[in-house]
Structures are given as C-alpha cells and as structure tokens.
Amino acid sequence: MVTTAVQGRAAHNEPDFIARAETLAEGFAARAAEHDRTGSFPFENFRELSEAGLLSLTVPAAHGGGGAGARYAAKILGIIGKADASTALVLSMHYINHLVMARSPTWPARLSRKLARESVEGLALINALRVEPDLGSPARGGLPATIARRTETGWRLSGHKIYSTGSPILKWYLVWARTDEAEPRVGQFLVPAALPGTRIVETWDHHGLRASGSHDVIFDDVVIPLDAEVDVRKPADWRAPDVAQATVHTIFVAAIYDGIARAARDWLINFLKTRVPANLGAPLASLPRAQEILGGIEAKLAVNARLIDSFASDFDDGLQLSAIESNIVKLTVTNNAVAAVEDALSLTSNHGLSRKNPLERHYRDVLCGRVHTPQDDATKISAGRVALGI
C-alpha cells in the first residue's frame, strides 16, 4: 500500500506542541503514582490535554487540528508515556483513530468531519471497542458476538466488549460487530457513549496500566442511526490487514513502552548517583558493573529511538510498508523496553521493587507490552510463514 505523504510531516507549531506536552507531563508524572495505587482514571490529564490543543494533534489541519503525522505524534506519546503510561495509552488510541479516519476511503466524510470538529472544540475522545470475552483478540480471527440488527429506523446493537481503554471518558465508541443478515457482514459502527442501554462495568483491576480505565462496556439493544455504519464488509474482505492502521498502531504502542523504559532509566541514573552503600563509600555509579549495565540500557533505547523515528518517517513519507514489518518494530521496541527495565531492577535490589519508588510501577506497566496486540508469537509466526513462502 502506498499512501500520500501526510500533512503532519511539517505539523505547524511543532516546538510549541512539544513544549506544551513536556509542561503537562510534569503534572501527569506527579499524579501517576496515586492513580496507579487507586486504579482511578486521570480525568484531569485529559482536560489539560484538551485545553493545550493536544487532543486534536492528529486531526487534519484543514479541520483546525494539529495536522500531525505518525512521527510527530509518536514524539508526543513518548513524552506522555514517560510521565503516565495509562494516559498515553488512551491518548494513542484517540490519535490512531483520527489518523486512520482522515486517510480511509471507507470512513463517511460527514462522520469524520464531525468527529474532527468535536476533537478540536472540546473533550471528545474516541476508541475502537473490539475485544470480547469469548472472541479474544480480533487480530487472531473469529466473528464477534456483538450483533447489529437492522430495522427500518436504525441499528439495534447488543454485545459485550472488554479491555475498552479509556471507557470512563470516551465520547465515541467505534464498535466491532456483525450484522444479523442472512449472510452476516462484519465491521465498525460509530456509537455515542452513554446512550440508553449502554453501561460501563468497572472490571479493570490489572497488574499494569492500572489508570487506563480499560473496563467492560455492555450494549443492550442500543439504538443507533442507520448511517452509523462506518465500514461493514463480508468477513472474507477483512482478511487483508489495514496497513495504515497496523503501522500507526505499532508505532504509537512502541513509543509508549519506550517512554516507560526511559522513565525507568532516568530514575536509575539518579539512584546510582545518590546511593552510597557504607561498605563502598562511593556512589553506585562508580562501579564498572553499574556503568556497563546502564550502557546496555542506553544501547537498547538508542535502537528503539531509531526504529520508531525512521519507521514513522517512512509512513509519513508515503513509503511502501508491510504489516509484518510494523509488527516486528513493535516486537523489537517493546522487548528492548522490558529488558531495559529488568536491567534497571538488577542494579537496585529491594529499592527497585519498593512501592515508594516508581521503578516497580514502570516494571508493571512495561510488561503489558508483551501482551499488547500484536503479540510476539503471532508476529514471529507470520514472519516465519512469509519467509517460508507459505
């Protein structure tokens, strides 16, 4: 797939947006531990992001947004991810959907313009709700149990979605469902949050990313307009991956987990410089072993930075990319990030796992990269099959 170069390659006010993100990140980082401890949703972070104009970063400039592409958005997500990974995850899903809808020929222009305008004007986030209790990850195939029944006046939607990231604050759900037609079609329906028959069940009590609000959302005969159908096709027509969506998804997810590892690295450096064991009489930073392990962390993060930046730049420049290559970038970056935090723990003994220090939270958060779609096994199997020509 060849895309046209996105306007985000030269997003206006780039230094200004980065400065805004860095300023907000200070407050996000200060609040992150409490949100993690209580599992509370960081509503205040999103109010500040909206006021700073950062919710509309990937909305096209023609609609009043920042016009940013993947490379620039990944920079912002890296900054926010370093401060509060849960906030960054919700923000990344919002960014992905606006980037995709601006480029997708299947998105009704009226709906994409409406959502773009709302994102510019206020607090109006969107995320795709796809995963179900029995279906598992849609990336691994299978028809959704969520059903859209067509009537003369509208669709009636019923189903159960899990891992609905950002559910406490979302204004729009992009729901993956199948129709009740004789030959079912599968696809996306745009559903306003809080319609009658919709309820959020607060089930999210996770090891990491605890403040992401990834609860269950139940739809019980929810009525939506007929024109809420965004992209609904025969199941066979979904077999080929959406390369644009796969690319920005993997870039943004990679940027978040890389940000977590950089937060861990920064804490480790301060720890090594200030920790002076009595038997050593000098900071831990003076030990060659500490220097070597920190150097290894730096090497992993340097590789990550190059991969994220170059791959995002290729996407923005409209170069030919593949979903498998995108998935390999995500695999490499997230595994480097996990290894970097594990290396940091190896130097900090009990201090690294103490809840009074942020390293244990960074470790719990970064481990989510291993289960975040696409998972490593699926990526390796796909790459192996391509190499074998099967």
From TrEMBL:
Alphabetical list of Gene3D superfamilies matching this protein: Acyl-CoA dehydrogenase/oxidase, N-terminal domain, Butyryl-CoA Dehydrogenase, subunit A, domain 2, Butyryl-CoA Dehydrogenase, subunit A, domain 3
SUPFAM superfamilies cross-referenced by the UniProt entry: Acyl-CoA dehydrogenase C-terminal domain-like, Acyl-CoA dehydrogenase NM domain-like
A Pfam family hit: Acyl-CoA_dh_2
Residue span(s) of domain Acyl-CoA dehydrogenase/oxidase N-terminal: 24-95
Keyword Oxidoreductase annotated: yes
TM regions (residue ranges): none
Domain Acyl-CoA oxidase/dehydrogenase middle: 132-222
Keywords: Flavoprotein, Oxidoreductase
Taxonomy, superkingdom: Bacteria
Name under which the protein is recorded: Acyl-CoA dehydrogenase
